[in-house]
Amino acid sequence: DAGVIQSPRHEVTEMGQEVTLRCKPISGHNSLFWYRQTMMRGLELLIYFNNNVPIDDSGMPEDRFSAKMPNASFSTLKIQPSEPRDSAVYFCASLSRVYWAEAFFGQGTRLTVV
Amino acid sequence: SQQGEEDPQALSIQEGENATMNCSYKTSINNLQWYRQNSGRGLVHLILIRSNEREKHSGRLRVTLDTSKKSSSLLITASRAADTASYFCATANSGGYQKVTFGIGTKLQVIP
Known about the structure:
Strand content of chain A: over 45%
Structural class of chain A: mainly beta
Oligomer: heterodimer
Largest interface: A-B, 25 and 24 residues
Radius of gyration of chain B: 13 Å
CATH class of chain B: Mainly Beta
Order of helices and strands of chain A: EEEEEEEEEEE
């Protein structure tokens, strides 16, 4: 398996624009997590899905953020409209259904909002 | 919200020395995991310890878990320059769904 795949790797956008980040989890994994990493706040859990259903979105900072998982092999994190303070590295991770499982991370998307 | 908190936040040692990082957490857990992140890269899983385990080894890594104190430690023995990275503990909550949350990390520098 190629691991968790995120796209794009880098995104530079202007304030006010819509940004969509994409994630393909490892095949067979049934949990998917979106994290945001900044120097100030560390690695924050934004939302996680189990069997494509959002379980906990309490980490989503504002209504400008939304996430979907239309099927087991794809998820998106959308920011609309984007703001400079959204600049961060966004990671996606997936977890298998095995009870004592490790999370596998993608390489992240570095988002810069100017 | 952050679950784990690593201590220290930064650590600088000489190559060959041992490095110890600590992690405290707040709620009941299913397991605790340690990850490494090299600058600008994704996180890589190092080791997982279950809530019913007290100690685990993997190569030069030793992890302990004290559920009564809600704390864990990661020991890297005979450190190498290549161990320079940030290290994070992550906890998976007990209960139905495994929600994996991270601490702020320890930045380790190993000086050759």
